[in-house]
Design goal:
- The chain is of the alpha+beta class.
- A six-stranded mixed β-sheet has the order 1-2-6-3-5-4, sandwiched between helices. Strands 7-11-8-10-9 form a five-stranded mixed β-sheet, with helices on both faces.
- It starts with a strand and ends with a strand.
- The longest helix has 24 residues.
- The chain is built from 13 helices and eleven strands.
- About 45% of the residues lie in helices and about 20% in strands.
């Protein structure tokens, strides 16, 4: 692993693990975001448009025609606290990938017809997605959990109203017009001298403004205390979800521990609720940890079931989680979790996308860039006591709990 400075005036730091995994390169770029609430919403709606608008003298059709037989693409992405690009190319098309980053950044196209077509396509996709009762339930759940905050909820058709080309252009040029704090993570089969040349030609000449972006607290006013919401929508199936929010630790060890807890909990839930009680189409538990604006967690349960048994089965979900918190489970569940983690880890190491995205996420989340290599040592510490400890931190719904029930329309 080499940490190489190939940018003018140390503006761009390239980190390139020299690993030949497949015949492709994966690119993942990230930098910290300071978008306000309105700006994030407008840019999120406009990102897919950028892929239909093209760059320079190429609109989407002419760009597609010009790159026939080549494998290279880049795509802008935006998250609550990070923005960047992802991309992929074959080794022989590596320069094309760098050219795309350069041209999208310096010569993006903004066309009203392309934006209108993109919004129409996006509106149809969102409308069709929300026709699925499961998607409609998840959408409603997030809006209740986060009090309709746009940084934490999915798109609805009405959200696309009022998006203007001027807004999209202004925000895109602002966010993707300053590469002073970008980190480029490139993994795959490449010639280092050639890669260095492309970095010096294309990356080192990307624009910078030398401003200091800082992560802003979006002031999300989530639910507090205990709350229950019931509503009717869809037909036949019922859905139940419970959510708990709270403070968390954020580290590579904590992430792996939470993952092990989820594997144990899901195996126990499948055994107790789905198989023994035979009343659910699916049941699951998971916890997500987020480092910003301050380390926090969201614990979730979800089940699809016979509406008549929703309350009964939801009680069984809590009883199962309580049994884990008390340590009332066999060691085999811990061993199964560790075996599952080991298999997933070994499979992930064969994928360029895993290396690139992991390094990028680690940088953005304040972890060591190579913390993915700490997996073997960390996993040694996972035992039954560790699972119980994780469960008592991240699988408790005693004080802070939102329960949402969706029943079929009457």
């Amino acid at each position: 692993q080499n940490g190489l400075d190939w940018g003018q005036n140390s503006r761009i730091i390239g980190i390139f693990p020299l690993i030949v995994v497949k015949y492709f390169l994966k690119l993942w770029i990230t930098f910290r975001s300071q978008l306000c609430r309105v700006s994030f919403e407008q840019l999120r709606k406009g990102l897919s448009y950028m892929m239909t608008s093209g760059f320079g003298s190429f609109d989407a059709p002419s760009l597609q025609k010009a790159t026939v037989g080549k494998l290279a693409y880049v795509y802008p992405r935006i998250e609550t606290f990070r923005e960047g690009w992802s991309g992929e190319c074959s080794p022989r098309d590596m320069e094309l990938m760098f050219q795309m980053i350069y041209l999208y950044s310096l010569r993006p196209r903004f066309n009203s017809d392309a934006l209108s077509a993109s919004l129409t396509q996006m509106r149809a996709f969102v409308q069709n997605s929300l026709l699925d009762p499961s998607n409609a339930f998840d959408d409603t759940l997030d809006h209740i959990v986060y009090n309709h905050h746009p940084l934490k909820t999915g798109l609805r058709p009405e959200d696309l109203d009022g998006v203007s080309l001027e807004q999209v252009e202004r925000i895109f040029r602002d966010r993707f017009g300053d590469y002073d704090d970008f980190s480029f993570c490139i993994v795959g089969n490449f010639d280092e001298a050639q890669l260095r040349q492309y970095c010096e030609v294309y990356l080192a000449n990307l624009p910078t403004l030398k401003r200091k972006d800082k992560i802003r607290d979006p002031k999300v006013k989530s639910f507090t205390g205990k709350k229950e919401v019931r509503f009717n929508k869809g037909s036949e199936r019922g859905f139940v979800s419970n959510v708990s929010l709270g403070k968390a630790e954020f580290s590579a060890a904590e992430l792996l521990g939470v993952n092990a807890l989820s594997i144990v909990a899901n195996e126990k839930l499948r055994e107790n609720v789905r198989e023994n009680m035979s009343g659910t189409y699916g049941v699951s538990f998971w916890t997500t940890l987020t480092p910003y604006p301050k380390p926090n967690f969201r614990a979730n349960t979800w089940l699809g079931c016979d509406p008549q048994r929703a309350e009964e089965l939801n009680k069984a979900v809590f009883a199962t989680l309580d049994s884990i918190r008390l340590g009332n489970f066999e060691d085999k569940f811990v061993q199964n979790a560790k075996t599952t983690q080991q298999k997933r880890y070994e499979e992930s190491l064969t994928k360029n996308s895993y290396w690139a995205s992991s390094m990028s996420s680690n940088l953005g989340n304040g972890l060591s860039i190579d913390s993915l290599m700490d997996f073997p040592a960390i996993q040694q510490s996972i035992d039954k006591a560790a699972i119980v400890r994780m469960a008592n931190k991240y699988a408790t719904f005693d004080k802070n709990r939102l329960s949402v029930y969706m029943f079929p329309k009457e």
